[in-house]
Amino acid sequence: MSFITDKQTLDDLNIFGKRGKQSIYSIFNRTCSRGGAEQLEQMFRFPLSDTDAINRRSSIIRYFQQRKQVFPFKNDQFEAIEQYLSNTDGRSQLTHESNTLERKFKTLIGSDTEYKLLAKGVASLVEIVHGLKKLTTEWLQDASAAPYIADLRIMQQIISSEAWKPVHEKKPGSRLSFEDNTVLDKIFRYLEIDHVRTLLYHLYTMDVYISVAQVATERKFVFPEAIDRELHSIHLENVYHPQLEKAIGNTLSITPDSNVVFLTGANMAGKSTFMKSLGIALFLAHMGFPVAADRMRFSVRDGMFTTINLSDNLNMGYSHFYAEVLRVKKVAEHLNANHNIFVIFDELFRGTNVKDAYEATVAITAAFARKTHCMFIVSTHIMEAGDTLKPQYGNINFVYLPTRMEQHKPVYTYRLEKGITEDRHGMVIINNEGIIDILKQGLNNN
Q1: Is 213 exposed, middle or buried (0-12, 13-18, 19+ CB in 10 A)?
Q2: What is the pTM of this model?
């Protein structure tokens, strides 16, 4: 089963972002090829849910990081190859009979565009195969390449087969005759096309690994360790938001004995940013990618759902409150299906009145607390809900982000503390901005 998530979660965490804005995907996209960028996007769309697969990918990326490897091929080679392979018309296959006087004349005056594209694609494949032969030979002798051995052997087996012998007989960069191109075109586009596509898949994946390794080094991200999923645990040290400069990290552990994190804090104290930091770290960890933290160990989850920037749906006739209700219902359905999921709710039931929000927050959080195989982060401004839940459930971890008042101005530490805050500084902020005075002045002017 693949890792379960949805568009709301991807949007909340800014995984792909909006046009013109930086995203989590864009942080890691240092790929050199278009195919690498597309492969990276697929990894983001389909995180892993298998412990061994996650740790294997992570170890491969670390291998390239340790080598300080740069991608050994050029993008224009792949562009030429993709354009060449996209011509699937069987009538375009080169044959010895098509080497006519007319074609030779077209070549002489430079008008045989189709042949030029075919020849360029063939030449690029020849260059890549020769470069790959050298790389695989070298890397297979490197003991530290153990995590990547399986991929290397697949590529080596393809290019070492008898069918590819004519490719190795041609020197990379040398001028290929029409007869040479005829033989190689038959191999690349017809006899061995599936193997060519497999080879390109592994090369694009290599491009991704090297790109992510470079980001890990430059940003000093760490590689999480996926542990036994039955432990139902996450341990984070100094996790922070990867898109913030001078971000402040927080340390947190979630276990079956404290599977619900009940988060309080005043407006602007950093609750949403903290929850996004957790969600992004967990999402990247399930990809086998490095995260913005000092250390991370986690039990693999079946999926993750967040509700941070939820809006109403006017087209469907949904109010904000009803959109929240449907969101909770969706989570409940996955819980009833016995999925091990990670859930984030920012200001649960903010779309209704205080009394209903209080009662609903208590009821839903209590239900979450009974699902000890899952993990929940619930934030709220309704501190009274925490006071009600605290004596009843020992597995709810009550934490808050504090606000310090200095000369009637709020100062935020962005550091988690134990307990439930009593901070309510909304009116202080309103008064500091002089809003009431502005409104009074407007009334006097009238």
Answers
A1: buried
A2: 0.90
